[in-house]
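Protocol step 4 of 6: structure prediction from sequence.
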Amino acid sequence: MLTLAKTALLHGRLIQRHGGDLEELLGAFGEVLAVAPRSEAELRAVAHASRGEVLVMVDRAAEAAEDLIEAVALFTALGQP
């Protein structure tokens, strides 16, 4: 599952870099969160932060807040600024 999660994150980053469809991008980051083990806190934090950023871009602020809050909590637990 970890390899699938990392692949989904890479897919999302490639979509983002090349200006791809935002819904597809949300799907890629959602896939990371669906398959990444809870023990992979850093991977999950990056996926939450990335999905939150995209949700802000598509005017879904309430949903974005949930992801961004979770990202902050995970990064804080990891001791990252």
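Step 5 (inspection) to follow. Residues 41-57 form the longest helix (17 residues).
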